Amino acid sequence: MYLGYNKLQGVIPKEIGSLTQLKEMYLGGNKLQGEIPYEIGNLRNLEHLNLELNNLVGPVPSAIFNISTMKALSFLFNKLSGIPPSTAEFPNLEQLYLGDNNFTGPFPGFITNASKLSIIEMGFNSFSGFIPETIGNLKNLERLYLSGNYLTSSTPDLSLISPLTNCKNLRHLVLGGNPLNSILPSSIGNLSVSLESLYMNECNISGNIPKEIENLNNLIVLQLEDNELTGSIPVTLGGLHKLQGLNLERNKLEGFIPSSLCQLNELFELLLGGNKIYGSIPACLGNLSTLRKLSLGFNKLTSFIPSTLWNLKDILYLNLSSNSLNGSLPLEIGNLKVAINIDLSRNILSGNIPTVIDSLENLQNLSLAFNRLQGSIPETFGHLKSLEFLDLSSNNLSGLIPKSLEVLFYLKYLNLSFNQLSGEIPKGGCFGNFSIESFMGNLALCGSSRLHVPLCKTRTHGKSSSRKVMLFIALPLSITFTLVVFVFIFVLMKCRKKRTRPPTHVEMYPQRTWRRISYHELVRATHGFSENNLLGRGSYGSVFRGRLHDGMELAVKVFHLHFGEALTSFEAECAVLSNIHHRNLVKIISNCSNDDFKSLILEYMPNGSLEKCFYSDNNVLDISQRLNIMIDVASALEYLHFGYSVPIIHCDLKPSNVLLDENMVAHLSDFGIAKLLGEEGSMTQTQTLSTIGYMAPEYGREGKISRQGDVYSYGIMLMETFTRKKPTDEIFIEGMSLRTWVGESLCRTIMEVVDTNLLRRDDEHFSRKEECVSSILSLAVECTRESTLERINIKEAVSRLLKIRV
C-alpha cells in the first residue's frame, strides 16, 4: 500500500489492522495525526512500515515490536514518545528510523539484538545514558546516526569507539550534539576503512586529535567543531586525500596550520576559526582550486595575506577576521568574482580599498571594519548590486560617501562609523533606511536632521563680471590687513605668555580631592593612545587602557570633540559621576580637559564588558555568575532611581555598558546621555537617542524618559543574559522580537530559548536550574511590558532576584 506524500489528514483508522496479508505500508509525507493504532500489530507479515513526516503523537504500540518479519521501520519527523521495553526482538530488521521525535529514556536495548541492522537513525530525540558497547555486535552496521540526544560514554576515553571497530562496513558515524565528555582515543584509527563521514561536533571532547586518524583514508567529511580539543592540528590529516569537508572551529587548538593540508586536493571547505592558531597562512592553500569555504577567523595569525589566496577564483566564503594580518588589499581581490561573503575585519590591513572591488558582483556581505584602511570609498562600490551587508567602520577612510551606493537596493546594513568622512550623507535609495548609527564618529558629515548631523550649507556662486573686478582690488587689501592683524596678535600673545600658562588640566569638582593627572602623563600611560591600548569605541568617545609610572592601571575615555554632542556627553558624565558613589557604579579617578582635549579617567576593569564576556568563546558564565552580575546592575539602578537626592535615569542600559572587575563584580558605566528627572521624578522628554533594541517603546516614539524606561532596558538585558541572543539578532523578523520570543517560550518550555551553555537535561540539578531560569525570564517579561504602568520598579526587581538566588 503506497499512499505516501499526498495530503491525507485525520487519524490512521484502526481497521487497517485487518489487512493481514500486507507486507509493505507507506503512509509517510502526509498530515496524519493522533496515535498509531494498536491494531497495526496484527499485521504479522509486515516487512516495511513507513509513517515518517506526519504529526503522529503518543507511544509506539508494543505490538509492532513483535512483528518478526519486519525489515524496515521508519517513524522519522513525528511527535512520538515512548519506546517499548528492550524485550522486543527484530531478527530480520535491517533499517530503523526513529529520528526527530520526542523519545526519551536510555538507549533502546532491542537495537543491539537486531543483528541484521545496517542503518540506525535516532537523532534529535532525548535519549540519555550510556551508548552500549554491545553496539559493536552489529556486524552489518553501515550508518549510525545518534546526534542531538543526551547520550554519553561510559569511560573518559570514548568507550564506544573500540567496539565499533568490529563494524567493518561502517560508512557514516554521526554523534554530534551529545555530551560524550571524553577524549578521542587512538583506536579511532581502527574504525572501518570504509568510513566516509565522522561527525563529533559539540560533544565536549577534549585532548588532542590522534595522529592515527590518517588511517581513515576514505573519509570525506570530518566535523569536530565546538569541542575542547587542544594541541596542534595533526600533520597526518594531509593523508586523507578524499576529504572534502574539514571543520575544527571553536576549539582550543594551537600551533601552525600544517602545510600538509594543501595535499587535500578535493577539499570543499576548510573551517579552522575560533582557535588559538598562530603563525602565517600557508601560501599553498591558494592551490586548492576546489575550495569554496575558508574560515580562519578569530585566531592569532600574523604576517601578510598570501597573494596566492586571491587565486581561489571559485571561493564563496572567505573569513580571515579577528587576527593580526597586515599589508594592503591587492588588485587581485577582483579575482574573487563569485564570492558571496568576505570578512577581513579586525586585522591591521592598511592602504586604499582597490577600485577593482566592483568585480565582485555576487558579493552579499563585506566587512573590512577595524583595520587601518585609508583613502576614499571607491565609487565602484555602486556596482556591487547584490550587496546586503557592508561594514567599513573604524578605519581611517576620508572624503565623501559615494552617491553610487544609493543604487544598492538590497543593502540592509551599512556601517561607515568612526572614520574621517566628510560632506553630505546621500539621501536616495537605501539611505532612507539608515540611522545615525551608520555614520557616527566621522569628521564633518552633514545631511538630514533625522540623522542628528548638521544641515549642509548651500553655496551661492557669483555670476557678474563686476565681482571679478572687485576681487583684484580686494585681494591685495585683505592680505595686507591680515598681516597687520597677525603681527598684532603675535605681539599680544607673547606679552601674555609670561602671565598665563595653557590649561592642560582642569581639576574637576571642589567637593572631593581628585588625583591630578596631566595630558602628557596620559599620553605616556597609553603609549600615545595607541591602537594596541584601545579597549573599545562608543558613540562619543574611545576608551584606552593606561598604566601610570607608579603602576596604577586606569581606563581613559577620550571624547571625539569633532562629533557634535561629545562635549555635552563629557559634561553629563562629569556631572553625574562626580556626585554619586556606589559599589556597582564605575569609579571616576579624575579628568583631563583643555580646549582641544576632553577625557575622563576611570577605574580599570580587567574583565572588560559584559557584552564581550557573553560572546567570547573562551568565557562561558554559569547561571550563578550571570544572576550575580544582573543583581549588581539592578542594585546600581536602584541607587540611581531611589538612592540619590534627584532620580538619575541612565537611558542607555546594554551589556557593553556593564564592566566587570577582577572579581566579576559588575559596574554600570557610560553616563553620557544620562538625565536628571527633576522634582516631579516621573517623566521628562529628550531628543537624545538610546540604543536600538534596548530602547523602551515610549522613548523611541516620543522621547519620554522615566525610571520605567530604564527598567524596560534592564528587562531586555536580562533576557539577553540568559538566552545569549541580542535583541537585534537576525532571527527576529516579521513581528517577532526578543520579548515575544521569550514570552511565548514561558507558555511552553524555556529550553527553546535558554542559552545552551546553561542547561543540560543530564544535569542532576536540571529541574532546579530550569525553575530558576524560568523565574528570571518571567521577571524580565514583567520589566518589558508595553505599558509603563504595568512594569515593575527596580526595587521590586532587586528583591525578587535576591529571592531567586537564595
Descriptors:
11 helices, single chain, Phosphorylase Kinase, domain 1, 17-stranded parallel beta sheet, Transferase(Phosphotransferase), domain 1, 46 strands, alpha/beta, 17% helix, 806 residues, Leucine-rich repeat, LRR (right-handed beta-alpha superhelix), six-stranded parallel beta sheet
In summary, what is this structure?
The chain is an alpha/beta fold and 806 residues long.
Describe this structure in words.
The chain has 806 residues and is an alpha/beta fold. Among the domains are: 1-80, Ribonuclease Inhibitor (Leucine-rich repeat, LRR (right-handed beta-alpha superhelix)), CATH 3.80.10.10; 519-603, Phosphorylase Kinase, domain 1; 610-805, Transferase(Phosphotransferase) domain 1 (Transferase(Phosphotransferase), domain 1), CATH 1.10.510. Helices cover 17% and strands 20% of the residues. It is built from 11 helices and 46 strands. The strands form 10 sheets. The chain has a 17-stranded parallel sheet, with no helix packed on it. A 6-stranded parallel sheet has the order 26-28-30-32-34-35, with no helix packed on it. It has a 5-stranded antiparallel sheet with strand order 36-37-38-40-39, with helices on both faces. A hairpin with a 3-residue loop joins strand 36 (534-537) and strand 37 (541-547). Helix 6 (623-642) runs antiparallel to helix 8, helix 8 (707-723) packs antiparallel against helix 10 and helix 10 (766-783) runs antiparallel to helix 11 (794-805). It starts with 8 loop residues before the first strand and ends with a helix. The relative contact order is 0.03.
